[in-house]
Amino acid sequence: MATKKEQISRRTQEERRAEAEEALIRSALELISTNGVARTSLAEIGQRAGYSRGLASHYFGSKDSLINQLISHARRKYLQRIRGQRAGTGAEALVMGADEYVKEHYDPNPATPALIVMWGATLPQGANNTEAIAQADESARRIIRKTIAQGQRDGSISKDVDAEGFSVAYLGMLRGIAAQALISPELMKPRKIRAELKRFIGAALSGSAPGC
């Protein structure tokens, strides 16, 4: 059985490791948001985090492994944020999720823009980490489909809404807004965009959109 001194030492080591990992992840997100994936090296990440140039390699092994962890980190942070909000119906949950997604681009958190940059880096044929991004996207679409099913049960979403088609359109709309925020930030008027998102989503879920 470990002594109290050994337990304290072990806990301190774990805390230091967690602190270092958090600093490395944040540095990686900041660098990727600014420089892109290809122009960000593990050595730069370690240096920016205030550690040795080799620490990121020690923790993550390779850039591909790091990217996979960053994707998981960014998604986890977003899900934590929306889970902290309350939504009564399925329709309200989808409107709220889109609203939080847009709002996140105006926080000092680099995770969201970095995720878009990493997503864009997988578009060329044969790019690395395509599978990790595809899995993250499917996980997001799965949550959307489940929320639509919830809304159709509680009566807030029309039975005519196709969950699979809507999940693709919904995620595509949010990703498109996020990409525009990076390319043309002067166009991002958050209050107006959030209002229009609510209108678009509300119309689509009610079955009142053109063609429904």
Strand-helix topology:
Blueprint: H1 4-35, H2 42-48, H3 55-60, H4 63-83, H5 90-104, H6 111-121, H7 130-154, H8 163-183, H9 190-206
Number of domains: 2
> Helix fraction?
over 70%
> How many strand segments?
0
CATH topology of the largest domain: Tetracycline Repressor, domain 2
Question: What letter string, H or E per element, gives the SSE order?
Answer: HHHHHHHHH
Structural class: mainly alpha
C-alpha end-to-end distance: 67 Å
Mean pLDDT: 82
Please name the CATH architecture of the largest domain: Orthogonal Bundle
What is the CATH top level name of the largest domain? Mainly Alpha
**How would you describe the oligomerization state of the chains in this entry?**
single chain
Total helical elements: 9
CA radius of gyration is 20 Å
Which parts are unreliable, with pLDDT below 50 for 5 consecutive residues or more?
A: 4-8
Main beta sheet:
none
CATH homologous superfamily label of the largest domain = Tetracycline Repressor, domain 2
